[in-house]
Fold:
Amino acid sequence: MENLKIYHNTHDLFYREPFGALPCNSTVKLKIQTFDIKQINMELKVFKDNEEYFQAKLQKAGEEGPVSVFAAEITAPAEPCLLWYYFVLDTGGQVYYYGNNCEMLGGWGRLYKDRPLAFQITVHLENNETPQWLKEAIMYQIFVDRFYNGLEDGTILNPKKGALIHAHWDNDPVYIREVQSGRVIRWDFFGGNLLGIIQKLSYLRNLGINVLYLNPIFEAPSNHKYDTANYHKIDSMFGDNSIFKLLCQIAGKMGIKVILDGVFSHTGSDSIYFNKEGNYPEAGAYQSPASPYFSWYRFTNYPHEYESWWGIDSLPNVNELDPSYLSFMIHDENSVGKKWVKMGAAGWRLDVADELPDEFIRLLRQAVKDTDPEAVLIGEVWEDASNKISYGERREYLFGNELDSVTNYPFRNIILDYLLEIITAKQVHDRFMSLYENYPIHHFYSAMNLIGTHDTARALTVLSEMPPQDTLNYAEKSNDAIPQDALVAGIARMKLASLFQMTFPGMPCIYYGDEAGLKGYRDPFCRRTYPWGSENKELLAWYEKIISIRNQYDCLKTGTWHSLVFNQDVYGYLREIKDGRDVFGQTKENNSLLVIFNRRKDREYYVEYKLLDSVQGQIKDLLEPDKSHMIMEGSDRLGIKVNPLGARLILLK
Structure:
């Protein structure tokens, strides 16, 4: 088997055309090439999910010397799905298989003696589109309690009974837990509120932000609000419904949209709907089977035993397809999904999307789009969303009738692993290309590209190579001090990570305070307050610069993307708009930008880039505009020096 020379590359148009995901009813041409094999018969096997969909003998499509090319054509089904394919090769009594590589990343495949891993083709609805504004946006995530207190005297707005109120804005967040159970018995608060966001809108606009994503803001006992108590009411510590409406109005006039966090797979136990603690006058499901909310929940031994999110009994799961729940959330004229969009929200980020049935997401999408066709649904998904399996079922997020965007945690993992020298530039290329191939083009350009969230350690802490959190005790984790030499390297890597965000296809999402140098391990330390007046000025100035560049050049939003590997340490890509049209046919200004990263902190590199088109004269680096390069007439190569932990952003035209 080692001597057989057989080739198929899903990223090369010679072998698979067109590239990437397919609309329903469209066709794709597949080729496989052999070298110096005199006798061979080939079959193509195609599966729709787990059922055989198509099988055909490949026909010879060309022969030149020892090289033979075999080809076949597949017509995609009329309904969205995932297609999987591999090749069966008979060399005269000996059968081999050619399929995907062991990492399932597409690109070059490999030979197997037994049934192989298959190549993926995502088949989506023919009219699969996402709003254009999503592809051109820069998002900013706010954990409201930790952002800014908008009350002039600094008092806390409507503090909750039993709450721990921090006396100092720069205190560490803390959980006060019951010793035996680990249950949080007092929640801590700093006093951030919606008025504070309104007061800081000018800061956000000047930074270049045009979308805010707010962690949950509905009434709930906790500081994080993922234990919703009343979906129709803004938490009183954050403000009220009228202040939310005012926020949307003022932000809208500044060109800033507001996305809400929707926690629809579970409620809080201390809620109007469940009312386990008896804090609401109306009988909840825990108190009476006659409650209008009883059918929402799944009790196994009423009332004390019930399904809950990851076994946390303060977060009882709901039956999302219960007719009463569907009416409340989706169908009623004043349903939760519709109400807040009518009040000014530009859409929803769906918490734990893999806990929500596909049917629920489809129905919610329809209700939201009927209310505002430009509103969006963004799903929290931690893996490749095109082939995600949850609870034994293949999800349908990107088929065109569910999500507009997903949280791009794979993007985060690729960037951090590359900068920390865990993976090579070639592996970066392979992993990015896999997403590019698997995601429908509208979703690839709408993905929520993040490097940190309220559920992850701060990117600066990770990129400063601090010890893993799981190896530390509480006191060590709470100490956010980083040795100076590690911090210098961490800030340099943070600049590179954020440059990836601002130059890569998709919607960059900045976790509040990342631009100011906030540090910290995972929850609660990644949820420290924004350091107003103590920002890292170097990092903040960097963010202002690269966000301005992102907003200035159309090619960084919806231009073509071409991945480049220079060596194991240096990675880059070309972003380009030619002929006045972007990848979606929108009229845009022509420009071409070359982005190059060097992840080594102890070595500079000199690399060459072969110019794809004729370029003559001065070439400008947007990161160092005082420096320029000359391209001499007749030259087709650009020589580029990239400093240690440095980057180049070269405007070719």
